[in-house]
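Hey, I'm writing a tutorial for new members on how sequence and structure tokens pair up, and I'd like a real worked example in the thread rather than a made-up one. If someone can provide the structure for the chain below, I'll link this post from the tutorial.
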Amino acid sequence: MFKKDNSMPDQKKFQGEIKIDEEKCKGCKICVNFCPNGAIGISEKINKKGVYPVQIKDKGKCTGCGICFLVCPDVAIEIYNEPRKK
């Protein structure tokens, strides 16, 4: 995934997909604040923990950068990254 110069690949070439386990999510919103593309938002439904978990707000905006996965303290996010289809 990294180029020889250790920089991130051109995110415009990738389409990401995240899966959020809404029952694991404690609604801390860290991922929402760190998402550079605004792909994650707050759900309108309460989960079993009694909080509003995060959800995918705009699937098309996700580039698969992995920031949400890295900052989630509850490991409630899985990320999949693949080249964008032309």
